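Retro notes (design track)

What went well: tokenization of the new backbones is finally stable.
What didn't: we kept losing track of which sequence belonged to which structure.
Fix going forward: every design gets posted as structure first, then sequence, in one message. First example under the new rule, 437 residues:
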């Protein structure tokens, strides 16, 4: 299923593919097949900034109108007639060429208006549109006519489809008319329903404007909304897409301290280390001594070790002592054990006894327990800190129980684990989850 956060970007991609296909088909380029012009229904910009309706609204232009300064300024936007909708839909859902189908579907969405949305929906039903296409359609309809799209979605009998349509339509509406979308959500009396849709609203606000979305989520956090951190993660993802890791790091640092800021920093760290692990580590060093830094150092340490475990642990060894460095080493050794358990175990042998080593061994055990549970248990016994040792041993025993239930069960009474820990092991399910006791 297409992720909700990818919807506006998928619309951009569909339009971009459509624009490229038009040029290829009209130019008769090699590999494009027979040269054939598409129905003259709507002009697709060569380099769109996003779906037409949402793009116009983001610039303060009424939905369905192009801003005079936009790349498509002056371009003719012919309204789709009923016959053109039918012809375009046939191509979108039946043409054997997948590129032509994408192009035709892009034309349907670019030509969607409050007046023809129902007809396009009927054609999509007849053409058996995919789930991804339905999500794109609901987003586009919401951007063009939020109230109409939501009213139509509310009439869908299937609960899952109804909820999905409401969510995507609200995201689209928030991207085009944030104040009205916020007001609509605020009128929902059912708290559970309002909470379920809040994340979709934030996604649309982030599509509209990062600053607006950031302020909105911070207001939620100040009001005590427990989901504010998750919403800020959504905003951070869009900020990263638009501005990249370096600018997003500066944006996240500027947020007021709290769970929302930590969530944003963690999301940025994950993306930053993907693009430049060394630079991400240098940036993350500043958080090694702050209260919320453990999550950020852990994120960078684990992802850095996935690419270069030697460099990752050397960076971590150079950090100030404390919980953040220990969390990072825990994650890094887990990744190193996955890549090269022999090298990781040699590093552990050479590492002096300390709370840092305890966390490193715990991370190592977490990874190797599923391949070599007995070896993992032996390593877990070397942990000096009692609670960390018991947790690591329990985790390794659970993995052993899944691999060899009889052997693990015979070992448990003499394992040294507490009765409660032994019960946790015996309640472990095959997929690694603890059963209900």
């Amino acid at each position: 299923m297409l992720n909700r956060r990818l919807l506006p970007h998928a619309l951009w991609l569909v339009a971009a593919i459509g624009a490229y296909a038009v040029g290829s088909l009209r130019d008769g380029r090699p590999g494009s097949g027979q040269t054939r012009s598409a129905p003259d229904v709507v002009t697709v910009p060569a380099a769109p900034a996003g779906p037409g309706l949402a793009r116009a609204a983001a610039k303060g232009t009424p939905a369905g109108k192009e801003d005079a300064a936009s790349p498509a300024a002056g371009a003719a936007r012919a309204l789709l007639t009923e016959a053109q909708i039918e012809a375009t839909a046939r191509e979108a859902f039946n043409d054997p060429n997948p590129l032509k189908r994408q192009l035709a579907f892009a034309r349907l969405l670019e030509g969607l208006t409050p007046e023809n949305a129902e007809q396009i929906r009927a054609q999509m039903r007849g053409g058996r549109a995919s789930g991804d296409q339905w999500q794109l359609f609901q987003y586009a309809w919401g951007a063009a006519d939020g109230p109409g799209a939501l009213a139509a979605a509310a009439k869908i009998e299937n609960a899952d489809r109804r909820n999905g349509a409401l969510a995507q339509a609200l995201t689209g509406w928030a991207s085009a008319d944030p104040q009205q979308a916020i007001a609509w959500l605020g009128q929902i009396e059912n708290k559970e329903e309002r909470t379920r849709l809040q994340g979709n609203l934030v996604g649309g606000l982030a599509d509209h404007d990062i600053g607006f979305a950031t302020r909105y989520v911070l207001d939620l956090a100040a009001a005590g909304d427990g989901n504010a951190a998750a919403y800020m993660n959504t905003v951070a993802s869009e900020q990263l897409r638009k501005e990249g890791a370096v600018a997003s790091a500066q944006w996240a640092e500027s947020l007021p301290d709290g769970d929302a800021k930590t969530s944003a920093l963690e999301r940025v760290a994950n993306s930053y280390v993907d693009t430049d692990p060394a630079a991400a580590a240098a940036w993350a060093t500043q958080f090694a001594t702050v209260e919320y830094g453990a999550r950020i150092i852990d994120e960078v340490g684990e992802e850095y070790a996935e690419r270069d475990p030697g460099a990752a642990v050397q960076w971590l060894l150079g950090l100030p002592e404390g919980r953040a460095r220990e969390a990072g080493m825990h994650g890094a050794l887990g990744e190193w054990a996955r890549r090269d358990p022999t090298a990781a175990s040699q590093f552990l042998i050479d590492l002096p006894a300390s709370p840092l080593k305890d966390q490193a061994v715990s991370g190592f055990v977490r990874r190797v327990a599923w391949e070599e549970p007995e070896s993992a248990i032996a390593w877990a016994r070397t942990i000096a800190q009692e609670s960390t040792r018991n947790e690591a041993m329990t985790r390794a025993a659970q993995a052993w129980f899944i691999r060899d239930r009889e052997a693990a069960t015979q070992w448990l009474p003499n394992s040294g684990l507490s009765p409660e820990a032994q019960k946790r092991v015996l309640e472990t399910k095959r997929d690694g989850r603890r059963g209900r006791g």
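Added context from the reviewer: The mean pLDDT is 84.
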